[in-house]
Amino acid sequence: MIKKLLTPATIISILITLFISLPGGCGFMMIFPVFITIAYPIYALFSEKNRRINTVKTIIWVVVFSIIYGKHFIAGHHKRAIADDIVAQIFKYKDKNGEYPESLDSIGITTGSDLKSTFHYSYYANRDPQPLLFYRGEFSGFSFFHYNFDKKIWVRHDI
Question: Alpha-carbon distance 33 to 40, whole Å?
Answer without folding.
Answer: 11
